[in-house]
Automatic annotation (TrEMBL):
Source organism of this protein record: Streptomyces triticiradicis
Designated name of the protein: Methyltransferase domain-containing protein
Gene Ontology molecular-function annotations: methyltransferase activity
Protein family: Belongs to the CFA/CMAS family.
Coiled-coil region: none
Cited InterPro entries: CFA/CMAS, CMAS, MeTfrase_dom, SAM-dependent_MTases_sf
GO BP annotations listed: lipid biosynthetic process; methylation
Record keywords: Lipid metabolism, Methyltransferase, S-adenosyl-L-methionine, Transferase
Domain of life: Bacteria
Length: 429
């Protein structure tokens, strides 16, 4: 008798105390739920065991990465529905101990345990990083960056496309991803007032796109630093291919070890998320010390919403275990405060939240179009990590659960307070 799906769906709804908005297909081929909804596919009983042993986001992620759990239909719709059911309800949940005092909840859990079979917890997928304390030492930062960025340049070419820019693009209606990324780089250059003869430090330079754009289109001399050996090798080849070795230097170097200032400008695009709360003031002070008086910093950074009690903030389990080990997000206000504490004057903040959602959807489309090759390059588990991470992030930006901002700050001149900024700053010249 094929009845696992209706039983599973009924027990899950009993446990959640709410209807499950997705259709369910179980390992025996049975289905239950709204006919038009995306289908949550339990390919085996192990998927259920993963959720029972680690309820919530990490259990779902492990089942997805291992291939035990899948989604058929529109992935974004499914994630949006799950976000509203699981993550938002979790904020108001009574907690596992209180919930288990409810006889109906205990009965539902017992029913799910019987369906799951073996009492032993499945091993985490090989792609999961062993959890550790967030130290943000030079060694731990190198290890975390290597996990995320040394997946292979060929893989990133599939996802990012020809621009090889791994940060939020700047969109106009009808534009391509490459055009939007070029416009973002140009926006950064204009905010930093780059012009021939000036010197730029690009912190977390990635595959060199910002450094190349600034040197080629604005005539500046650029030092780009990254902790990724693979990124540096790729960026150096691009620099050589464009004949810009006299203007662009790519280093494998921690930003804390840069000693050849002063610079006229610093760009930090999608790098500060790796710094960590305990190190953020140091990060801002180091960059400030590397700038000339009147020099500008463009800090492009993802932000989370502030907690009522900031001490209760915890790093996202899935992203910490599979995507950005040791990455931390801060509220925009915290970032601005730390920059000001380091002596910067914040002159402009531009929110690009919707732009990042659009960017992520294009990256997911690129990955899906190149799926067979991506799996050959990285393995099915790693490819599934990236598809889930980028699609879920797009939904989070669309739902205003996270944002991204460009903060322009200036190191004012000595005791005079001179900023060198135009009276109408939005002209960016």
């Amino acid at each position: 008798m094929q009845d696992a799906a209706p039983r599973l769906r009924s027990l899950v709804e009993q446990l959640l105390g709410a209807p499950l908005p997705l259709r369910v297909r179980a390992w025996d081929g049975s289905e239950a739920g709204p006919p038009a909804a995306p289908v949550l596919v339990f390919r085996n009983r192990r998927a259920l065991r993963r959720l029972l042993w680690k309820p919530g986001e990490l259990g779902l992620a492990r089942a997805w990465v291992a291939g035990d759990l899948g989604i058929e239909g529109d992935l974004y719709t499914a994630l949006d529905l799950l976000s509203g059911l699981v993550w938002e309800r979790a904020e108001d949940a009574r907690g596992p101990v209180a919930a288990l005092r409810d006889p109906e909840v205990r009965a539902a859990v017992r029913g799910l345990v019987r369906m799951a079979g073996s009492p032993l917890p499945p091993a985490p997928p090989a792609e999961e990083v062993r959890r550790r304390r967030h130290l943000h030492t030079r060694r731990s930062d190198r290890r975390a960056i290597s996990h995320h960025y040394d997946v292979g340049n060929d893989f990133y070419e599939i996802v990012l496309g020809p621009s090889m820019v791994y940060s939020c693009a700047y969109w106009e209606e009808g534009g391509t991803l490459e055009e939007a990324q070029r416009d973002k780089l140009e926006l950064v250059c204009r905010k930093l007032a780059l012009e021939p003869g000036r010197r730029l430090l690009d912190v977390g330079c990635g595959w060199g796109s910002m450094a190349l754009h600034a040197a080629r289109d604005h005539g500046v001399r650029v030092v780009g630093v990254t902790l990724s050996q693979e990124q540096a090798a790729y960026a150096r080849k691009r620099v050589a291919d464009e004949g810009l070795t006299d203007r662009v230097e790519i280093r494998v170097q921690d930003y804390r070890d840069v000693t050849d200032g002063p610079y006229d400008a610093v760009s930090s695009i999608g790098m500060a998320e790796h710094v960590g709360a305990e190190r953020y003031l140091e990060y801002a002070e180091v960059l400030g010390a590397l700038l000339e008086p009147g020099g500008r910093l463009l800090n492009h950074q993802i932000a989370r919403r502030p907690e009522r009690d900031e001490s209760s903030y915890s790093v996202d389990e899935f992203i910490d275990a599979y995507v950005f080990p040791d990455g931390e997000l801060a509220p925009l206000g915290t970032t601005v405060t730390q920059l000001e504490r380091a002596g910067f004057e914040v002159r402009d903040v531009e929110a690009l939240r919707e732009h990042y959602a659009l960017t992520l959807r294009r990256w997911v489309a690129n990955l899906e179009a190149g799926w067979p090759r991506a799996v050959r390059l990285t393995g099915a588990g790693r490819a599934r990590v990236w598809r889930l991470y980028m699609a879920a992030s797009a939904v989070a930006f669309e739902r205003n659960q996270i944002g991204v901002n460009q903060v322009l700050a200036v190191k004012t001149s000595g005791g005079t307070g001179g900023s060198g900024m135009p009276l109408r700053a939005r002209t960016w010249n």
